[in-house]
Amino acid sequence: MPKAKTREKMNFGARLAELRKERGFTQLELADQAGLSRRMLAYYEGQSEHPPTTHLPTIAQALGVTADELLGLAPIKRVTRTKDSRLQRRMQEIGKLDAQDKRQVLQLIDAFIEKGQLKRKVQRAA
Fold first, then answer.
1. Per-residue b or e along 8-43, where b marks 16 or more CB atoms closer than 10 Å to that residue's CB
2. Is this model's pTM higher than 0.85 or not?
3. How many CB atoms lie within 10 A of CB 65?
4. Which of 10, 50, 63, 91 could be a cystine partner for 14, CB 3.0 to 4.6 Å?
5. Taking the domains of the chain in order of start, what are their residue ranges?
6. How high is the mean pLDDT in each 10-residue block of the chain (126 residues)?
7. Are 34 and 58 in contact (CB under 8 A)?
8. Which of 69, 88, 70, 72 is nearest to 80 (CA)?
9. CATH number given to 7-71
10. How far does Cα 16 stand from its chain's mean position?
11. 57 within 8 A of 21, measured Cβ to Cβ
């Protein structure tokens, strides 16, 4: 059985894909965060053994790592992953909205929370 590659010995594309998945990003989400197209990110993950020097800082920043960590020159610091990192990122984006839009989003979220609470009460009563 072949030895599993350590992350530091992986090529750039494999390391990028693993970090993206570990951080809970889809290709499209990471591409948006880094200012790339999904197709370009997929190329970097699959075909490229050499990092895109012009996009390296933005990709590293979006993943929450240093460029050295992304390149495999430094060990990657483990992050404690939230249960739903996609939800966490959405909440951060909501925080950037203006006050009126933020209020509307929060009202919508509150309505779903209340619906869930009512549903659980009905289930317990039954």
1. eebebbbbbbebbeebbbebebbbebbebeeebbbe
2. no
3. 19
4. 10
5. 7-71, 96-125
6. 51 89 88 91 83 87 89 76 69 86 90 89 83
7. yes
8. 88
9. 1.10.260.40
10. 12
11. no
